[in-house]
Amino acid sequence: MGIFDKIMGGNTLYYPGCMVKFVMKNLQDNYEEILRKSGIDFIKLNDLEACCGSPVLNAGYERDFKTLAKKNLDIFKKHAVKKIITSCPACYKTFNKDYRELIGEEWDVEVEHVTQTIYKALRKGKLKIKNPEKRTKLTYHDPCHLGRHSGIYEEPRKILEKLGYEIVDMKSSKEGALCCGGGGGVRSNFSELSNAITKDLLEEAEDTKTTVLVTTCPMCDACFLQGAKNSKMNVKELSELIIEKLE
Amino acid sequence: MTNLKKTLKSERVKVGKETVIENYNNYLENRKKSQKDVDVDKLKEELKEIKKYSIENLDELKRKTIKNLKEQNIQVFEAKDAKEARKIALKLIPKGKKVVKSKSNVVNEICLERELLKRNEFTETDCGDFIIQITEEKECHPVSPAIHIPLEKITETIKEKFKAKLPNDPAKITHWIRDYIKKKIFEADIGITGANVLSADGGIFILENEGNISLVSRLPKKHIIITSIDKIVPRTEDAVKICKAAAIWGSGVPLPTYINVISSLSRTADVQKNLIWGMYGPEEVSVILIDNGRSEMIKEGFTELLECINCGACLFPCPIYRNILDKYGFHYFGGRGVGMTVFQQGLKEGFKNGLYYCTTCELCKQNCPMDIDIPKVIKELRKRAVKNNLETETNSKMMDNIRTSGNPFGEDVKEGEIPDKLYCC
Ligand code: SF4
Ligand code: SF4
């Protein structure tokens, strides 16, 4: 975006979130490509931006959370960020709910989860995908931060359908979807407990008789990938399925 | 701290978890069916309003409740904590007397059973609680306390302790327990129950499906009701709504089998209009009304936890509860249980018993008739823990990373590898 646009409309920031930026780096490349192909003009702030603060707030470090939010608010202002697109459900929820709660009026940034962006682009025909040859069955996991916390259940499902997949829901899905075991700091603090929870979910996924488990959260993805070593499920993050089918 | 590795592998957790998961969808279906003729949103809204009003006006409602009960010859004792409640109860229960008890979470909360076992003949009359008593286990759910005890263990215990010949058959075992307990209730001097709701217009509401509570509260000469101040609502109509919700969310039925309403000593005035107290019911009814941290919860803004109607619906879907059962909490279980622990046993005990287990997944909130935002409460209590220097080692490492490099992983993430410590979310 040029200086003029910046002043007029502000910038759109792609915010991958720490999980994607530091651990699941391939997802960042995927989403950047998808966004570019969707005709989205976005900026990146790389190491200028800080962690959104989700794990910090969840662990009870209120002061540090405020410091991070302030730091991000300043940097977003400096770069005229008017809209954030993020591929992490936890960051989405944090910017959308917790920042709004903490900062109030001054937080006038529109926040979008990447599945909302992509679904719009698909609908408007801006993002083109190869015609699906046959409908393959898979199952989709609703990440807690995207589903129950934010009410986004449909966009990821509709994207998958447009890609030519048929979703077989797990016994517990949407509002009742199980937890991957990764949230609230449980993965890092109590790994055995977290593994047990991941296993419960993978078992439900196996019960669908499909072989692919797709999610759209880097934390769920990481938990499943680690847990799937002993499971029949083939774990995918949504962007991987989109990339395969881009024209 | 709980030994998680051991707990996760334990037989009791394995059995309990299997029972929970196997029965969960069934329960959800029943719950849905039981809501067929109910405007659920409206009921939930009304419940929230009742509970909010009750907590806001607790002092006044409590005074009214006590006054109304006393006028009907029911004794009322107030206890500020578990110790005081135990003392009052033990004074009301002479040594050596035969005592029967029905399900009550508040009685568990004050650890009365431990004392009674030392000096009285004491029998649990709820089938599940009786199983817990004879197997010397610990209950793990407020509505279904013995889901973690396998059938074989129950049969074996009965065979061994009571020399009864029984096959491994749930119906036969249940009937044996029924007959045994019924006899004990008939012989008992004192019956102890809890209460689901108290209405300030003078009603004590106790729900049940088994039928033991009607007997425990009617047959022995003395009835002692041990309950807590958060059970008080303004009117009978409000209490009935809570009973309905407790049945729907607690057992997946539209109504409990029985709702006992007790509002006075039994009485008659049939001999020439002379009012005589104490007919077929007990001759003495006492209520012990305990606070035990609840006023503090209100004072400190944690009123949401007191809106709980103890249905247990938040536990079955909770990923942590499913995997460690009663080790998530103390006297009360799940995220809500951890919250109660902080106020009843202290922040340190809360920290040790699961303050950091919650994944904040919101499955509990989504299932709660009162929409209690349990993970939000947990997060507030974690803030309090941090302020009191109660941190997990992992979290302080994460915070070092955040403070020095602005991200939770710090410098030690290796390209293409998922690290062991996924400090995120
Ligand atoms: S939010 Fe916490 S307490 Fe509630 S269901 Fe999830 S893990 Fe359990
Ligand atoms: S927190 Fe809600 S779901 Fe859990 S026991 Fe209480 S009322 Fe029931």
Give me some keywords for this one:
heterodimer; A: 247 residues; alpha/beta; Rossmann fold; 2 domains; 12 helices; 48% helix; globular; B: 425 residues; four-stranded mixed sheet; 19 helices; 12% strand; binds iron/sulfur cluster
Explain briefly what this protein structure is:
The complex is a heterodimer of chains A (247) and B (425). Chain A is α/β, with parallel strands linked by helices and 247 residues long.
Share in helix of chain B: 40-55%
Into which percent range does the helicity of residues of chain A fall? 40-55%
Shape of chain A: globular
Q: Any idea what the CATH architecture of the largest domain in chain A is?
A: 3-Layer(aba) Sandwich
Mean pLDDT of chain A: 94
Tally of contiguous helical segments of chain A: 12
Which structural class matches the secondary elements of chain B? Answer: alpha/beta
Shape of chain B: globular
Number of E strands of chain A: 7
Stretches with pLDDT under 50, minimum 5 residues of chain B = none
Order of helices and strands of chain A: HEHHHHEHEHEHEHHEHEH
Spans where pLDDT lies below 50 across 5 or more residues of chain A: none
What's the multimeric state? heterodimer
User: How many individual domains of chain A?
Assistant: 2
- Mean pLDDT score of chain B: 96
Kindly describe this structure.
The complex is a heterodimer of chains A (about 250) and B (about 425). Chain A starts with a helix and ends with a helix. Chain A is built from 12 helices and 7 strands. Chain A is α/β, with parallel strands linked by helices and about 250 residues long. Chain A has 2 domains: about 5-120, Rossmann fold (3-Layer(aba) Sandwich), CATH 3.40.50; about 130-245, Rossmann fold. In chain A, strands 5-4-6-7 form a 4-stranded parallel sheet, sandwiched between helices. In chain A, about 50% of the residues are buried. The longest helix of chain A is centred in the first third of the chain and has 17 residues, at about 60-80. Chain A has helices spanning about 5-10, 20-25, 25-35, 55-60, 60-80, 90-105, 115-125, 155-160, 185-190, 190-205, 220-225, 240-245, and strands spanning about 10-15, 80-85, 110-115, 135-140, 165, 210-215, 235. Chain B is of the alpha/beta class. Chain B folds into 2 domains: about 5-15 and about 315-405, no CATH class; about 55-295, 3-Layer(aba) Sandwich (Rossmann fold), CATH 3.40.50. Chain B is built from 19 helices and 12 strands. Chain B has helices at about 5-10, 10-35, 40-55, 60-70, 80-90, 105-110, 110-120, 125-135, 150-160, 170-185, 210-220, 235-250, 295-300, 320-325, 335-345, 345-350, 365, 375-385, 395-405, and strands at about 75-80, 100, 120-125, 190-195, 195-200, 205-210, 220-230, 230-235, 260, 265-270, 275, 285-290. Chain B has a 6-stranded parallel sheet with strand order 1-12-7-4-2-3, sandwiched between helices. In chain B, a hairpin with a 7-residue loop joins strand 10 (about 265-270) and strand 11 (about 275). Chain B is globular and about 90 Å long. Chain B starts with a helix and ends in a 20-residue tail after the last helix. The model of chain B has no long low-confidence stretch (mean pLDDT about 95). At the A-B interface, helix 2, helix 4, helix 5, helix 9 and helix 10 of A face helix 1, helix 2, helix 14, helix 17 and helix 18 of B.
